[in-house]
Every structure is written in structure tokens, then in C-alpha cells.
From TrEMBL:
Segment forming the signal sequence: none
The keyword Coiled coil is annotated on this UniProt entry: yes
PANTHER family xrefs: CILIA- AND FLAGELLA-ASSOCIATED PROTEIN 157 (PTHR40515)
Protein name (Swiss-Prot/TrEMBL): Cilia- and flagella-associated protein 157
Keywords: Coiled coil
Domain of life where this protein originates: Eukaryota
Residue ranges with Polar residues bias: 238-268
Coiled-coil segments: 281-318
Lineage: Eukaryota, Sar, Alveolata, Dinophyceae, Suessiales
Region Disordered, annotated ranges: 140-159, 222-268
Keyword Metal-binding appears in the UniProt entry: no
């Protein structure tokens, strides 16, 4: 047994003797024992853990209690507020009832005012209609008086109308005549183009025949040269007459020489035929150029005609739009519309499209003709259509040099260069 153990035992005995409480004595006994001390320490830790858990539970319960207490206080305050606001709510209800009664009286007064206003407007409308009818009767009477006073001018207006209608018919007939002439010129142009195509085909066929003739002439020329070299005759290759012999003694010809002379004459005929082909080709060229000039003149005349006709159509359309705008303004004025509808511009498409040409009266159509003929450009166009008849440009004759001096340069594109040697 060690000294420490003896000291601990003595201390424990002294503690036991000093302790008056039995529990204290037990604790002292447990402390004196090391194993019991460890058990006691574990128990103390367990108690501390329980104490902490109890403290946590206590804090949680305190917080929940404070929350419930707060909500309860809020409910109590609300109930107290409702209890105190009861009298004020009764006063509010009374005031709302008074306001409702006042609103009903105001609505009833407004209904009465609306009814009175409607009656007043109806009376004013009746008065305006009576005044309008009276004014309309007065205007109608004035118009009848003016027509009766202007009766002496009606003959002049009718004569002017007949003159304008006659001019219009003449312009229409002139337009129809030009249209027929245009159609006839178009048909003639088509025929001339067809003839030109056929002449081009004939020219190509003649050129092919000319090439074949040239080839045959070259072949015969080569054959003649070979036979002349073989027989040794003295005739020149390109001569229409037989040359005399160098000695001048013999004038007789053999059969071979006669055949060669015939071949040379055939060659000359081929050359004449070639020249005729060239003359025909030149004539065809001149005819083609003349036809082209005629076609250009006709096209220019047709373009001028279409331009003048288009200009007349535009001017007529403008006059018609002006009259339509006037008719539309009179119609809106008769319907009693004022403001922006009264000033309808002449180029207002959607508004003018409502007025059809068939709705125009005779006076409106006379107004269209007056507006059309009042323009100086229309009179100029009609005058130029009526009295101006441009003639087609004459076909200029070919110069004498072109007829007398044939041009063979165009054959260079067809025949090889060695054929001209």
C-alpha cells in the first residue's frame, strides 16, 4: 500500500468523521474510492447534460409562451378596438345613407335634364327642317326664274353643245381611223418581215448555187489546163476568141480546140451568172434597206400616234375627275355634310371611285367636254390630228456609182481566197 493511498484513506476517514450528513459521508466515501470517483464523474456529466437539455426546453417554452402571449395581446387589442369603434360605424352608416339619398336625387335630376334636352333638340331640329324646306323652295323658285329668264340663251348653248359633240365624234372617228391604219400597217409590217425572211432564204440559196458554180468552174479550169498541157495547143486560157498561131499560116481548128473554146465560153457564162447573182443580192439589199426605212418611219408614226392618244386620254381623265369631284361636293352639300367632306380634292381616289360614269347626267358630260376643250393642249392635239398628215419618207434612189461598180468584198466571207485568183 503506497503513501498516497494511506493519505487518501486518512483524509477520507477525517471527512467521514467531520460530515454530519449521511449523503456527504457517502460522497466522501465514493471520492476515497477511485472507481467510485469515475462513476461519480460520469453521473455528474449525465446530470449536466440533463441540465442543459432542461435549460434548452425551458428557453424554447419561454419563447413559445412569449409568442402566444404576443398573439393573445394582439387579439385582445383588436377586440377592444372593435368594441370601441362600434359607435363610429353607426355614424358612418348614417352618413352613407344620407349620401345615397343625395345621389338618387342627383340622378333623377340628370334624367329630367336629359329628357328636357332631347325635347329641346327635337324642337330645334323641326325648326331647322322647316327653315331648310322653306329655303329650298325659295332656291328652287329662283332657279326656275333664272331658267325662264335665260331661255333666249338656250339655243346658243344647244348649238355649242352640238358643235362640241360633233368635234368629239370627229375625234373619235379620227382615233378609229388611226387605229385601223395602225392595224393595217402592223399587218403590212408582218408581211414585209415575212417577205424579208423569204428573200434572205432565197439569197442564201443563190449564194450556195454560186459557190457550187465557182467550184465547178475551178474544176473545169483545172481540167482544161491539164488537157492543154497534154495536147500543147496555143489557145489562151481566159479568152473569148481564138488567137492566131505564131506563124499566121494555119486557120484550121481541131475538135479539141473547139471543145476548149466551148469550155471557155461556159466559164464566161458562169461568170455572167455570178455577176447576175451579185446584182440580185445588191437589189435585195437595197430593197431590205428601203423596207427598214419604211418600217422605222411607220414605227415612229405609230409612237407619235400612241403618245398623242395617251396624252388625250390623260387630259380627258383629269377633266372627268374634276367633274366627279364637283358632283361629289354637290351631293355632300345636299346631304347636309360640312367640314372636311366639302373640300374633296380632284385626285382623291377612294372618294371619286364612288361616283360612276353612268351616274353623270347630260349636263355633267357637257361640263366634261367644256373642261376638255378649254385646254389649249387638247385643241393643239386635235388640230394636229385633223390637219396634219405626215407622209412616209421617199425611198432615195441608189447612186449611179453603186449600180455601175459592183462590190465583191462580201464574197470574201463565203468563198476562199484562192477562188479569186
Amino acid at each position: 500500500m503506497t503513501f498516497c493511498n494511506i493519505l487518501e484513506a486518512s483524509q477520507a476517514q477525517s471527512f467521514v468523521t467531520r460530515a454530519a450528513n449521511p449523503v456527504r459521508c457517502q460522497l466522501l466515501l465514493l471520492l476515497s474510492d477511485p472507481v467510485g470517483c469515475q462513476d461519480l464523474q460520469r453521473q455528474v456529466d449525465a446530470e449536466k447534460e440533463k441540465n442543459r437539455s432542461l435549460e434548452d426546453q425551458y428557453k424554447h417554452r419561454v419563447a413559445s409562451f412569449a409568442k402566444r402571449e404576443k398573439t393573445t395581446l394582439n387579439k385582445i387589442d383588436a377586440l377592444e378596438k372593435r368594441l370601441t369603434d362600434g359607435a363610429e360605424h353607426d355614424d358612418h352608416s348614417k352618413r352613407m345613407e344620407v349620401i345615397g339619398n343625395m345621389h338618387g336625387s342627383v340622378v333623377a335630376g340628370l334624367e329630367c335634364i336629359q329628357n328636357n334636352t332631347a325635347k329641346i333638340l327635337q324642337d330645334q331640329e323641326k325648326d331647322l327642317m322647316r327653315a331648310f324646306r322653306a329655303r329650298l323652295k325659295e332656291v328652287s323658285k329662283d332657279l326656275e326664274d333664272q331658267r325662264s329668264r335665260k331661255g333666249e340663251h338656250s339655243t346658243e348653248l344647244q348649238a355649242r353643245h352640238r358643235r362640241v359633240v360633233a368635234e368629239l365624234h370627229e375625234a373619235q372617228e379620227l382615233a378609229q381611223t388611226f387605229d385601223k391604219k395602225n392595224q393595217a400597217l402592223v399587218a403590212e409590217n408582218q408581211k414585209l418581215q415575212e417577205r424579208l425572211r423569204t428573200r434572205d432564204d432565197d439569197r442564201q440559196a443563190l449564194l450556195r448555187e454560186l459557190v457550187l458554180a465557182r467550184q465547178q468552174a475551178a474544176r473545169l479550169k483545172a481540167q482544161n489546163g491539164k488537157e492543154g498541157a497534154a495536147t500543147g495547143d496555143v489557145f489562151p486560157p481566159v479568152s473569148n476568141q481564138t488567137a492566131p498561131s505564131p506563124k499566121g499560116s494555119s486557120r484550121s481548128f481541131s475538135q479539141k480546140q473547139v471543145d476548149q473554146a466551148k469550155l471557155q465560153q461556159t466559164h464566161n457564162k458562169q461568170f455572167e451568172r455570178e455577176m447576175a447573182f451579185r446584182e440580185a443580192a445588191k437589189k435585195l439589199k437595197r430593197m431590205v434597206e428601203a423596207e427598214r426605212r419604211t418600217v422605222r418611219a411607220l414605227k415612229q408614226q405609230q409612237a407619235e400616234l400612241m403618245q398623242h392618244r395617251t396624252e388625250l386620254e390623260v387630259l380627258l381623265k383629269q377633266s372627268l375627275d374634276d367633274v366627279k369631284a364637283e358632283v361629289l361636293r354637290h351631293r355632300m352639300a345636299a346631304e347636309g355634310q360640312t367640314g372636311p367632306a366639302m373640300g374633296v380634292p380632284s385626285d382623291h381616289g377612294p372618294a371619286l371611285s364612288t361616283v360612276s360614269v353612268h351616274e353623270l347626267t347630260a349636263q355633267d358630260r357637257e361640263r366634261v367636254l367644256e373642261l376638255l376643250l378649254s385646254q389649249q393642249r387638247v385643241v393643239q392635239l386635235l388640230y394636229s390630228k385633223t390637219f396634219a398628215h405626215p407622209q412616209l419618207p421617199p425611198i432615195s434612189p441608189e447612186p449611179v456609182e453603186m449600180r455601175n461598180e459592183p462590190d465583191f468584198t462580201w464574197l470574201g466571207d463565203i468563198l476562199p481566197p484562192e477562188d479569186f485568183a
